[in-house]
Amino acid sequence: MGKASRRKRQKDRQSTPARAPYVARPFEGLPGETEWVALREIVPAATATVQVDLPGGDGPREVQLVSVLPGAMPAVHRTNGAVLVALQSRTSSGDASRDVVQALLAATEAEPGTPVTSVRPATADTPRLQDVLVGDEPLRLEVQQDFNYWIDPDDPDAEALQATLQETNEAIVPTERIDTVPSAFWCLMSGRAYIRWILPEDEDTATRAMARLQAAGEHTLGGDTVLLGAFRAAGLLVPVLEVDPEVPSAEHGPALAELAERYAAALARTDELTPEERRARDGLVSRQVTLR
Fold it and tell me: Percent of the chain scored above 70 by pLDDT?
């Protein structure tokens, strides 16, 4: 290879944006971080509205965040100008925060009425949600019991989507919010009921506190409830409790609030873990599953 060709390749490499760095906790610093994690990883059907100010845009605009879109599309720009972005899309750069903004940019640049079927991987130059969100109100997603938010009444193909929508709605996992603590969601799967509670502290801190509770026998809602283990989702810990499927979700609220108080007290402790607490921590870690 000649010197000119080598110089050209070196120049091309220098002009290519670097890959987006991996971020284990991509939504850290956003108001309502646990709700972002829920929308990204936990709740099958949900929506939320935010204001963003994108580079090169005409100022703040409203966009709708959703869990998923038809065909796992990352985003859609509707004929009425509304922009919907799915957080549970396949696109992944290693930083979910940049991935969402990359999909936002692609959707706003697309012509109205255009679905965004794919998005280029985010790079180190792609802004993060922390850079483009307007306002400091904590995110609060709205849990949906179906995917009817997919339907755009102005879309001429909306009727054709109905058959797919009906089939997808029938397969949805029933999910309800428990309001006594932040970001706790009851769900029913194959006749068994679970509560997934997203903790706002970093994984290690949350695991230590849950281990203290487990060693003391204070880690469940009482009765026949069981702590099955925990997910690791977007850098946060998500304990999973199995509960009686015959008991309505809201009735678990008071007991979950009491567990949250015990958890807060465990968090406040600064003494070293006892041997029993270390064994409990090791057991929790061994049963953890990383989402994505």
Answer: 93
Q: Mind listing the pLDDT tens digit for each residue in 9-22?
A: 554 445 678 988 99
Domains belonging to the chain, first-starting first, are 17-170 (no CATH), 175-290 (3.30.1460)
CB atoms within 10 A of CB 189: 11
Residue type, 255: A
Query: pTM of the predicted model, to two decimals?
Result: 0.91
Please check the confidence at residue 140 and state whether its pLDDT lies above 70: yes
Q: In what order do the strands lie in the sheet with 61-66?
A: 114-116, 75-77, 83-86, 61-66, 46-52, 142-143
